[in-house]
């Protein structure tokens, strides 16, 4: 079975890693990051095919328009609600540093062919961003409670 690895990179970055911190403008940042990762210009149309529309329709409930409901940080804090326990976590967040995120992505993919680009981004992008400060300091995994499954196997293993 053949695979278009560049398509996988585009799918992975179609929502940029900093989207939750600044939903407004995330599509422009996604194009920039995907362009850096693939070494070619990526336009908005390249990131929004039928599969993106289908996925967003399947995984989300109908929502009011963005004029009525806004999602994002308030007063430098982002509220995260654990999906199983309902427990709320407050994360301190700063403004998005687009150049910092772009630099991390460039460092990860430098000198790699498309299969390795995708695999390296998938495995290293968030952990490399966490090592930086600024917005990524708020991306540290929340503490794992042994009575609540509050992370991936990797998070539980590292706890």
Care to describe what's here?
With 159 residues, the chain is mostly helical. The chain has one domain. The chain is built from seven helices and two strands. It has helices spanning 5-13, 26-38, 44-47, 50-59, 98-109, 114-131, 153-158, and strands at residues 77-81, 88-92. It has a two-stranded antiparallel ribbon. A hairpin with a 6-residue loop joins strand 1 and strand 2. The protein is globular, with a radius of gyration of 17 Å.
Outline of the structure:
The chain has 159 residues and is mostly helical.
Structural descriptors:
159 residues, mainly alpha, two-stranded antiparallel ribbon, 45% helix, 6% strand
Number of domains: 1
Total count of strands: 2
Low-pLDDT runs of 5+ residues are 134-144
Spatial ordering of strands, largest sheet: 1-2
In terms of topology, how is this protein built?
Layout: H1 5-13, H2 26-38, H3 44-47, H4 50-59, E1 77-81, E2 88-92, H5 98-109, H6 114-131, H7 153-158
Antiparallel strand pairs: 1-2
Helix pairs in contact: 1-2, 1-6, 2-5, 5-6
């Amino acid at each position: 079975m053949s695979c278009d690895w560049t398509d996988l990179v585009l799918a992975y970055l179609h929502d940029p890693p900093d989207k939750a911190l600044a939903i407004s403008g995330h599509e422009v940042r996604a194009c920039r990051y995907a362009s850096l990762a693939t070494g070619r210009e990526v336009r908005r149309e390249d990131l929004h095919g039928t599969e993106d529309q289908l996925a967003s329709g399947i995984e989300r409930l109908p929502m009011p328009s963005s004029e009525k409901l806004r999602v994002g940080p308030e007063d430098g804090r982002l509220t995260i609600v654990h999906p199983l326990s309902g427990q709320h976590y407050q994360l301190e967040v700063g403004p998005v540093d687009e150049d910092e995120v772009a630099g991390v992505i460039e460092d990860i993919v430098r000198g790699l062919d498309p299969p390795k680009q995708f695999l390296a981004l998938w495995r290293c992008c968030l952990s490399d961003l966490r090592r930086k400060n600024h917005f990524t300091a708020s991306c540290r995994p929340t503490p794992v409670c042994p009575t609540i499954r509050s992370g991936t196997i990797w998070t539980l293993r590292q706890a």
